[in-house]
Structure formats: C-alpha cells, structure tokens
Design brief:
Layout (H helix, E strand, L loop, with lengths): L1 H18 L4 H24 L3 H15 L1
Amino acid sequence: MHSLTSNNNKLGRKLADQSGDEREISFLFQRLSVLNQRYNAILLHDCFVKEEEVHSSLIFVLFCIA
C-alpha cells in the first residue's frame, strides 16, 4: 500500500509541475477514489438476485413445504 501511495504522489507531483496547480495531487486522489467507488457499486449491483430468480425460488420453497 505504501508503494501505491508513493507512486500516486509522484504522479500527482508530475501533474502539478505540468499544470502549475499544487492541487493536482488532491485531484488525482479524488479521481481514483471516485473510480474505486464506481467499481464497488458495479460489484455490489451484480451481487443482487434478480426478481424473477426470487419469485421462482419462492415458488419452489412453497412447493416443497406443501
């Protein structure tokens, strides 16, 4: 984790040197954070069971109980 942060700081420093804006390091970390949140949201979305699957599972359970 330390090397990742170090690499991001180096990249942010290069971006800041190119643009002249010292906030580029913060902007880089914010962009990476948003990308991580979007990726996690996609993974979470794919974990949910579709409504049709729940319905058919419920019918199967009710059939087995009866």
